[in-house]
Amino acid sequence: MEIECSGMEVKPINKRASGQAFEVILKPPSPMSDAAHCVTSPPKREVSLEDIQKKLEAAEDRRRVSHHLSVSLSISRQLNSKTESH
């Protein structure tokens, strides 16, 4: 049983203990397909120094909050273990 898809041909190979095996044969691209698949990157947006500073400050705030949460959690666990042991 051979399967033909656009641009490739799939031939099953003898079944193996690990499962099915297939041979996939890719056809060479046609001249028409090159033009259809030409992808251009989106235009780059200008990033100002102010934007970068705002992002850095926001990241620092997130780190600070995360640190405070981890310290609070650690203290809470220590207090919890002390109250359970008494």
From TrEMBL:
A GO biological-process term: regulation of microtubule polymerization or depolymerization
PROSITE patterns given in the database record: STATHMIN_3
Start and end residues of each stretch annotated as Disordered: 59-86
Similarity comment: Belongs to the stathmin family.
Cellular component terms per the entry's GO annotation: cytoplasm; growth cone
Classification via Pfam families: Stathmin (PF00836)
Low complexity bias spans: 68-77
An example molecular function term from Gene Ontology annotations: tubulin binding
Protein name, entry field: Stathmin
